[in-house]
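Need a sequence for this fold. Nothing fancy.
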């Protein structure tokens, strides 16, 4: 029992530290210290309200507790025996360590898209996803701001990955850290993509902060997490997304030719 409490405390501590550090650094930079410098990149003109930040932080702490429970189940219960998680890096190659992280994002994106579509079903939405959508003008603190009934399926992606993809604990940790950094970027409230990004093939593949911000301000469309793939296939991408993105980037880089 003491062992379970010890492991739970370590995982909860690490999850909260990850959240407060990554969201906190983004918040300090963009909303406190350098808000004037990044002014033109602000996606919505609205000012953040203190009560929204408090709600986002409290719900995120609750989600961190749920994620801790799921992590404990995967790493420290008899379930681990049946997962594909491996402890020795040499069981697979070092290349696989990197490839497994990339593949985990593709799997997560697919899982998230369909789970997110389901959460928007009118009979489910009001009991679950409505909490996340109370952040109409999201801040970095909204990254884990979910109803407890949404936090469970959000966290269960780890269980799915553990059963279908051989991952080392380092790869799992990096997946959660990089995933949160991308999530914080999606809820940043500012666009920070460099101007040259628009002309690359990656613009057509990956999401930007404007992409997810539009999901928050319009409630429907742009359901994907990392990639534009599923929204484009399922015709759920907000039609004027690129127009919005271009307008904002023009504001950020007024003196540069398109
Ligand atoms: Zn949504
Ligand atoms: Zn969101």
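Here you go.
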């Amino acid at each position: 029992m003491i062992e379970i409490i010890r492991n739970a405390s370590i995982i909860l501590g690490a999850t909260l530290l990850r959240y407060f550090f990554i969201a906190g650094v983004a918040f300090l930079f963009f909303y406190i210290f350098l808000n004037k410098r990044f002014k033109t990149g602000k996606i919505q003109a609205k000012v953040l309200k203190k009560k929204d930040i408090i709600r986002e932080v409290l719900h995120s702490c609750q989600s961190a507790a749920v994620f801790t429970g799921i992590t404990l189940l995967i790493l420290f219960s008899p379930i681990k025996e049946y997962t594909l998680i491996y402890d020795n890096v040499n069981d697979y190659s070092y290349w696989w360590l990197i490839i497994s992280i990339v593949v985990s994002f593709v799997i997560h994106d697919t899982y998230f898209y369909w789970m997110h579509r389901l959460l928007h079903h009118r009979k489910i939405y009001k009991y679950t996803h409505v909490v996340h959508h109370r952040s109409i003008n999201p801040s970095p603190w909204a990254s884990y701001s979910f109803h407890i009934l949404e936090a469970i399926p959000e966290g269960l992606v780890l269980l799915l990955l553990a059963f279908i993809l051989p991952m080392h604990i380092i790869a799992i940790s990096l997946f959660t850290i990089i995933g949160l950094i991308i999530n914080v970027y999606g809820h940043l409230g500012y666009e920070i993509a460099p101007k040259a990004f628009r002309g690359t093939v990656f613009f057509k593949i990956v999401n930007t902060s404007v992409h997810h911000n539009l999901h928050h301000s319009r409630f429907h469309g742009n359901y994907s997490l990392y990639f534009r793939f599923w929204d484009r296939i399922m015709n759920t991408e907000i039609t004027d997304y690129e127009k919005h993105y271009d307008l904002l980037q023009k504001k950020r880089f007024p003196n540069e030719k398109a």
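For context: The chain has eleven helices and no strands.
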